[in-house]
Structures are given as structure tokens and as C-alpha cells.
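Q: I'm building a small set of examples for a reading group on sequence design. Run inverse folding on the following structure and report the sequence directly after it, with nothing in between.
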């Protein structure tokens, strides 16, 4: 464990070697005893005080730790010709800790906490390489209770920008000789994400949800893709998620290319051009009687020439569960830590710090579990 923490944190610069040593010790202790309080993992009063002093240090920012981790990720990426960059959003729910400062409202208005959007790099075998980007933000509670006002709409627009911002960070970090495929769930089905100019090494693989207008007799995407002849079937192992038990599913595969019309209500409609995307539909035709059928509509900028290309994209999409696993682990770690700040009070700086330690640990956890749980 010690060697792992030293190696993982080698690019972190906190302005002073002693501070870095302290960080490595804290991370090692946390990793060795997951689920224990800071006081317990520190071992004695002096070490506990030192850990709290480290957190409240004015000499470094949480980003200093995060950026060091991103450099480790990039050094691992260098060994690949093609990497996957999976984006997803999660909520850190601190409703049970009303004394915590600096929180905002979550998707349910009665809940308060932080929003987190992460981009995790994976090899094409589904092995996590670490984080590429992470945005943490607080929704302004002033906007609560004034639904459908301009301010709340602006918040939503600003929040959907996170997918575009993470794509642009990904593209800045990955060197041109390495191909990168950005993968998102249906929240990333944003016209502006597809129409954004991308460097040639950057591709998108996005779960589609909107029934967009396409250049086909069927007029709309959902019926247009259904009318395409299947190119084969694929058996996948589905991971457990909040809505389902793990199970095996046989998916019928279809693919086609369509021209997508600019949405009618697009704000800069006159400046936009239709876009060409490859469309894949992987749908379960005979689900178990008590289960909802799987139906993945995928929109991609990757060239699809036949069955093998379709299978490759669907396989990559199935790795998306790993970022959910990462967020789950992160929340688990925070849940055990958030009671433990000094005097029983906490603030978002303290949370950010713990969050950063947890981030490196959670990535390590995902790396080891994915090796044994690769589904396909
Ligand atoms: Mn999501």
C-alpha cells in the first residue's frame, strides 16, 4: 500500500516535501482502514491533530492534489493508442449534516449537498487509468422556489455546459497521437456537444434519448433506426444497478448513418448546420417477463462499417458502469469521513480535501475490481 500511495501521489506538489509526506501517510492510513474515523486511523492524539492541521493548511488547494492525480492518469494513458473518457454526474448528499457550510440544493429540493461531474479514463479493455477532469459546484439556494424563471433556466443551461467543458479539458490533455472516445449516458445527448468542432483524434459515443428529426422517410430517429435490418445479436453481462439485478441479456443490433436536423428551438438555429452521426440500436427483444427490456440507442462519430464495429462500441458503452462504481465508492468514503472534522463542524474546504484523498483511493479500488469483474 505504501508504495502505491507514494507512486500515485508522486506528481502532487504542495510546496513542501514534509506536507507531501504527511499527505502520503494520511492516504495510506485511510486506505488501510476504510470505514474508520480519522481519530481511529491516526492512532494517537498527536497524529490526529496533525491530520486536522494538514486539512486546514492555507499553503495548498484541494486542486493541487487533484492535479497531481491527473498527471498520474496521463502517464498511464501514454501507453495506449486509444482511451475511453467516461463522463458522469453525481450528488454528494449532506442533508443529514445541516451544520455543514457552503452547500446547495440537489435534484430533490429538500436535499442539500454538492454536485460532482467526473471524467474517468479507461483502457479499451475497461481498466480505469484515473481521472482526467472533475468539476464540483454548489447550486445557489437563491434560485430555489422560483421555478421557470430566467435565473433557474440559466442555472440549467450553465450546468449542461459541464459536458462540453469536460470534453474540452479531455481534448486539451490528450496528445494528438492518442485517440479518445468520450462516453456519456443520455444526459449527454446535447445537440451542441455533437456540433462542437473536435480535433481529429476525439470521438463521441453518447446514449441518445431525444427523438430527433433525421433525413429519413420515417422522419424521426426512434422509428427510423427501428426500420433498419438487424446486423446480428450480442450477449452481454449486465451489472447490478439500482433498478436491476445482474443478468445476461441478448441484444439485437442495428446500425445506420443519419443526418440530424438542427433542433427547431435551438437558440442559434441559423448559425448551425445539420450533423452526420452513426446510430446504433442494441435492444433486448425477449427480456425475462419481470424485467424491463434493455434498449441502448447510441449516437457516435466513430465510423461504423459492420457488425464488429457495432459490437466494439456497445462493449465500450457497457464500461460506463465503472464511473458509477467510482462515484459510489467516493460517496461511501465521504460518508465515513464527513462526521470527523474538528469540533463536529465541517466546511466545504474540509470536504474537498477528504474528497481528493478519496478520489485517488476510489480509482485504485475501481482498478482492482474491474480486473476481476470485466463483463465481456
Ligand atoms: Mn448520469
Amino acid at each position: 500500500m505504501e508504495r502505491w500511495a507514494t507512486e500515485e501521489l508522486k506528481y502532487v506538489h504542495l510546496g513542501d516535501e514534509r506536507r507531501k509526506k504527511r499527505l502520503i501517510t494520511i492516504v495510506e492510513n485511510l486506505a488501510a482502514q476504510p470505514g474508520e474515523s480519522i481519530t481511529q486511523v491516526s492512532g494517537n492524539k498527536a497524529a490526529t491533530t496533525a491530520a486536522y492541521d494538514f486539512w486546514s493548511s492555507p499553503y495548498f488547494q484541494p486542486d493541487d492534489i487533484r492535479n497531481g492525480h491527473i498527471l498520474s492518469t496521463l502517464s498511464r494513458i501514454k501507453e495506449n493508442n486509444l482511451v475511453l473518457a467516461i463522463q458522469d454526474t453525481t450528488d454528494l448528499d449532506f442533508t443529514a449534516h445541516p451544520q455543514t457550510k457552503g452547500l446547495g440544493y440537489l435534484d430533490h429540493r429538500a436535499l442539500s449537498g454538492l454536485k460532482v461531474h467526473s471524467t474517468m479514463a479507461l483502457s479499451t479493455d475497461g481498466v480505469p487509468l484515473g481521472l482526467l477532469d472533475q468539476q464540483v459546484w454548489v447550486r445557489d439556494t437563491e434560485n430555489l422556489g422560483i421555478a421557470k424563471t430566467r435565473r433557474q433556466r440559466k442555472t440549467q443551461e450553465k450546468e449542461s455546459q459541464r459536458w462540453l467543458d469536460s470534453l474540452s479539458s479531455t481534448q486539451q490533455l490528450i496528445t494528438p497521437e492518442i485517440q479518445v472516445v468520450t462516453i456519456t449516458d443520455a444526459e449527454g445527448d446535447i445537440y451542441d456537444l455533437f456540433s462542437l468542432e473536435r480535433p481529429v483524434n476525439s470521438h463521441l459515443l453518447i446514449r441518445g434519448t431525444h427523438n430527433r428529426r433525421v433525413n429519413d422517410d420515417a422522419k424521426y430517429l426512434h422509428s427510423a433506426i427501428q426500420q433498419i435490418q438487424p446486423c446480428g445479436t450480442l450477449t452481454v453481462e449486465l451489472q447490478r444497478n439500482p433498478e436491476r439485478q445482474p443478468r445476461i441479456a441478448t441484444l439485437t443490433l442495428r446500425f445506420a448513418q443519419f443526418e440530424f436536423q438542427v433542433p427547431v428551438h435551438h437558440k442559434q438555429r441559423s448559425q448551425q448546420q445539420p450533423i452526420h452521426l452513426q446510430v446504433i440500436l442494441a435492444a433486448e427483444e425477449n427480456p425475462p417477463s419481470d424485467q424491463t427490456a434493455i434498449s441502448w440507442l447510441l449516437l457516435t462519430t466513430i465510423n461504423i462499417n459492420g457488425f464488429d464495429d457495432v459490437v466494439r462500441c456497445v462493449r465500450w458503452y457497457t464500461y460506463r458502469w465503472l464511473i458509477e462504481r467510482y462515484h459510489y465508492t467516493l460517496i461511501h468514503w465521504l460518508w465515513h469521513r464527513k462526521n470527523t472534522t474538528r469540533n463536529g463542524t465541517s466546511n466545504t474546504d474540509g470536504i474537498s480535501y477528504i474528497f481528493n484523498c478519496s478520489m485517488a483511493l476510489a480509482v485504485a479500488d475501481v482498478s482492482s475490481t474491474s480486473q476481476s469483474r470485466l463483463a465481456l
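Residues 348-373 form the longest helix (26 residues).
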